[in-house]
Amino acid sequence: MGKGPILQAPETFFIAPLSRPAPGSVGKTGSWRTSKPVVYEDKCTGCMLCWLYCPENTILKTSNGKVAIDYDYCKGCGVCAAVCPFEAIDMVSEV
Amino acid sequence: MVINLRKLPDKKYIMPGNAACPGCPETMGLRYVKMALGDNVVLVIPAGCSSVIQGISPYSGINAPILNIVFAAAASAATGMKAAFEAMGKDDVHVVVWAGDGGTGDIGFQALSGAAERDEDIIYICVDNEAYMNTGIQRSSLTPYGAWTTTTWKGKKEHKKNIPMILISHGVKYVATASVGYPTDFIEKLQRASKIKGFRYIHLLAPCPVGWRFDPALTAKVAQLAVETGLFPLYEYINGEFKLSPIAKRYKDPSKRKPIIEYLKLQGRYRHLLDKPEEIKKIEEYIENTWKLIETLEESFAPGKDRGKKIFDAL
Amino acid sequence: MPLMSLTGNYAVAHAVRLARVKVISAYPITPQTTIVEKLSAMVENGELDAKMVRVESEHSALATVFGAASAGARAFTATSSHGLLYMHEVVWWAAGSRIPLVMAVVTRAIGPPWNIHVDHQDIFDQRDTGWIIGIAQENQEVLDMTLQAFKLSEDPRVYLPVMVGLDGFILSHTRAPVDVPEQELVDEWLPPRRQPYVISPESNYVMGNIAPDEVHFLMRYSMHEAMEAAKTVIKEIDKEYGEVFGRSYGGLIECHNCDDADYIIVITGSWSGDAKVASDMLRENGYKVGVARIRYIRPWPKEELEELGSRAKGIIVFDRAISMGGYGPLYSDVAGTLYSNGGKTSLVGVIAGLAGVDVGAETFKETITSIIHKIEENGFFFEPQLWLLPKDYSSREKMMEVAKRWL
User: Which of A57, B117, C62, C341 is most buried, taking the most CB atoms under 10 A from its CB?
Assistant: First the structure.
């Protein structure tokens, strides 16, 4: 160990093609949606399949062991509703 | 190994608000990679959808350190990174290539073959959406027979190039197939692969709603159907031993497989051949041949018999 | 300090050893191959503690060392000609990332037809990539320039990759006495690797995803500023290297007989030696001719050439490369620089020595003499493209005869 380089700040005007992970790298993608997933808490068993398959990471685990949707970013693909074995998520048109 | 969904890490491995299309299989897959391997990972990503999915600098929608690299060079750049980490005494960093089917089987194949032959200590994942989706759905060598693309308007005339088999022929230690339809199977494979030293290859089927022309809600379902119809067998090859994955075992029996038409009819890319039985027959024959090959491999590389190792030792 | 008899390629290998490079990757190509052979031997016999990656192509060679450098290791590759062209997109990618890196380029003609002899077409093809590009004249300078390249590339004012050019066969395969510095002295002089960032689990940096066009534009400007800063750093390093190791070369250009010169030859690479001999001979004949040998084609020694141009009657540029349908690349840059002088200086661009055709001191002398005569007869002479065709092939009749035979 200790054989890594010294990270030293550039001493001239410097912009490198660098990024850091952050939400919203193309904005609030909730605006892309044409229909939104709605969770029926009574039907949700907290199996977490929707959470597992969600391509966007916009299924939030709630304190009561169920799920909620992050509508700011959810693109409305409907994968969650399609994989739910209990029909606990409906896609509701927004247009 | 049984994975408890509730125990999988709930970190934002994919940052919401990225540039992936709705229902994208690649962001699904990337989440599983990080769920399986944790944070001691660097990704090497050649040109493709996943370079765009990251979104606009100075932000990135993929929560991992990434070296984006020119199309043909992913396996080589990963080789160098691993060499550097080893030189600095950071042997435990997983260097993972995340490349599409074009970046793997076409333009990046030479570098992949080189890294596999040298047995570089990297994990190479081919996220296979069966065409050049990022440039607008052009055929690759991994596009399957019959599929419409914007460079095969009447359907591709050749079958899919079998990259996992080519990698097995390289004599690498670990080769597996996986599908985004079966996340826990993929995660288990990643975890097993992560414990092996040397070149590891995982071929991940990633149905693309845009390029395959299906409803984005059906990404997982289509990915499962590919397995359930017997079209895409899931297996693992570890150190000369070949075995079908538990999910896929039952499809060895043709009567257990779902009819291929169920898979084809969901996808607009096959629409032109749905009323052509002779074309569908060709795909069915491809499935039969695939399973004949699987049987041969099961026999040749049967676990516990050390036959696979002997085959390669004899070469 | 031990004096060794080294080829240019072995001089490169010793510099890489002395710089304690950690990751090396290369692919065989004539005339580069003996660099990778020597380095492989050094790694295998324990002289150099590095990982040697024997890749399947030049494209992979540069990608491998770029990957290593971006993760934090001092890394090195070398190539020539078609190998360099094959890695061209990675050449751009590496520079744009601002990760320090060093590559040796053994200059060689580009086919077809196949030809392994020297010209500068390959290295000038990299001119616009954002790499600092040095070209050495002889084997001692090859070692010194390669060693200095690491310090230059890793300077926080610069953070750009550096290419060191050495002429195929003339330097790469020809032995000459080379003073190889002691390791302890190099260790004192060359600081540990510095770089602006690393790609690692700790840094969580992402390199290269899409940026706004305007910011991409600024990145190019920032590379240009770093190039400008590199001019100072090159001179600094050249000076301090002289103090520590006893050899300085003059920074971006090396001047020979320039002080009172009426005519300046602008040239780069090993044939500069022949041009210097010609300049000495011409002085004996009463012509005040000097040689400004370009040591770095990037960053371009604009200030030095402006100064020389302001007091010379004529500038004669020798290019060992050609942009067909345009000009020789050195000529283009010299012409751009001299415009600040209002076009008062006579200017001639000579295209010569392509495809390894030899140009000796006598030929330099004859060519320069005839150009000087034209300038002195007319008071001014401007000729951007004077093709110095191979001897015995330069008449139209002879050319037509060759053309018939080769059709």
Answer: C62
- pLDDT above 50 (res A1): no
Q: Which of C159, C198, C204 sits opposite A20 (nearest CB)?
A: C204
Per-domain residue ranges of chain A: 44-93
Peptide bond preceding C113: is omega within 30 degrees of 0, i.e. cis? yes
Mean pLDDT value across residues B255-261: 98
Q: How far is B214 from chain A (nearest CA, A)?
A: 11
Domain of B261, CATH number, reads 3.40.50.970
Nearest to B60 among A21, A75, A83 (CB): A21
List of E strands, C244-313: 253-256, 263-267, 289-294, 296-298
Q: How far is C97 from chain B (nearest CA, A)?
A: 10
C88 touches chain B (CB under 8 A): no
| Interface mutation vs chain A, best among B15, B54, B204, most A CBs within 10 Å | B15
Mean pLDDT of chain A: 96
Which residue of A lies nearest to B54 if distances are taken between CA atoms?
A25
The answer as to whether B2 is a domain residue is: no
Which domain does B230 fall in, by range? 7-314
List strand residue ranges (DSSP E) for C112-221, in order.
Answer: 132-135, 162-167, 176-179, 194-195, 206-207
This model of the complex carries an ipTM of 0.96
- Rounded to the nearest angstrom, the minimum Cα separation between A61 and chain C is 25
In chain C, the domains with their CATH numbers are 3-245 (3.40.50.970), 253-387 (3.40.50.920)
Q: What is the pLDDT of residues C172-218, one digit of tens each?
A: 999 999 999 999 999 999 999 999 999 999 999 999 999 999 999 99
Nearest CA in chain B to C216: B57
Q: Report the gap between the CA of B15 and the closest CA in chain C (Å).
A: 13
At A34 the three-state DSSP class reads: coil
The topology under which CATH files domain A44-93 is Alpha-Beta Plaits (3.30.70)
Listing DSSP states for C32-87 in one string gives THHHHHHHHHHHHTTSS--EEEE-SSHHHHHHHHHHHHHHT--EEEEE-HHHHHHT
Residues of C in contact with B66 (CB under 8 A): 199, 206-209
Average pLDDT over residues B103-119: 98
Q: Which of C49, C54, C59, C60 to mutate to test the interface with B (most CBs of B within 10 A)?
A: C60
Strands B174-179 and B241-244 come out as: unpaired
Beta bridge partners of C255: C292
Nearest residue in B to C70, CA atom: B81
| pLDDT, tens digit (0-9, with 9 covering 90-100), for C113-164 | 999 999 999 999 999 999 999 999 999 999 999 999 999 999 999 999 999 9
Supply the DSSP symbol for A32.
G
In this predicted model, what pLDDT tens digit does every residue of B116-160 receive, in sequence order? 999 999 999 999 999 999 999 999 999 999 999 999 999 999 999
